[in-house]
Amino acid sequence: MILLDPPVWPFRDQLFSHLASDTSIEELHDFAGATGLHPRSYDGDHYDVPASRYDEVVAAGAVPVSNRELLAAVQRAGLRFRKRRGERPLASIVNGLPSLGAPHRLEILRSPFEAPPESTIAAVTAVTDADSRLLLVGSPKRGGWECPGGKREPGETPRESAVREVAEEAGIELAPDLLARVGYERIRFAGPVPDPQLHPISHVAVYGAQLESIGQDGIGPEGQPVVWLPPEQVWDRCGAAPWWPLLDRHLFG
């Protein structure tokens, strides 16, 4: 069921309602798409609906409820999306990383904060060159093109892991303290974790790095193809990836 609370939430001189599902995020996205809500009005476990569209959304099938009723329904369904002030939820995907081999929910956040280091299992870096082209590495094992990244080694900080992966996959040396925070992936397992190196709530740190030089296509130190693409061409290589919403925000704002 799709639920809509009263338009009492202020933002930029407007009042907004929260549109949510008591069943699934997929149901929420389907309804929002059918009613023409902008994808960027999605906020983790709800969509923000301007007061001017309240009656229209109710007419489309949303059930009016109180603020408390909506929150309770979202919590009962296990759909509550936790975030810190300043973070922006971008996606919530059931079993978004099939290679993990266990039921989970993948949550993607843009964030000005570091991912929790104690539960960060991997790190990824979006590297752009002086022409604002993005570095992508071909990975047959992972099935496609990705920003350089990989598992965190024992004793490494997430930033140290990030710069090591860039060096190994693309042959580029970066300074850990110059990496910019982009956000993180949060993996919430529904049951026992499938690997002792994982945590019930695991994180993948995502950083950004800007080069002053021009990148060169070629083959990386580990034998993987390396390409530099203008932002408008990146979607063709990895737009179907579950983490695309975060890269999209990083590239296009």
UniProtKB/TrEMBL annotation:
Statement: the UniProt record of this protein carries the keyword Magnesium: yes
UniProt-listed Gene3D superfamilies: Nucleoside Triphosphate Pyrophosphohydrolase
InterPro entries: DUF4031 (IPR025109), Nudix_hydrolase (IPR020476), NUDIX_hydrolase-like_dom_sf (IPR015797), NUDIX_hydrolase_dom (IPR000086)
Top-level taxon in the UniProt lineage: Bacteria
GO molecular function: hydrolase activity
Cofactor: Mg(2+)
Pfam families in alphabetical order: DUF4031, NUDIX
Annotated transmembrane regions: none
Stretches assigned to the Nudix hydrolase domain: 116-251
The protein's name in its UniProt record: Nudix hydrolase domain-containing protein
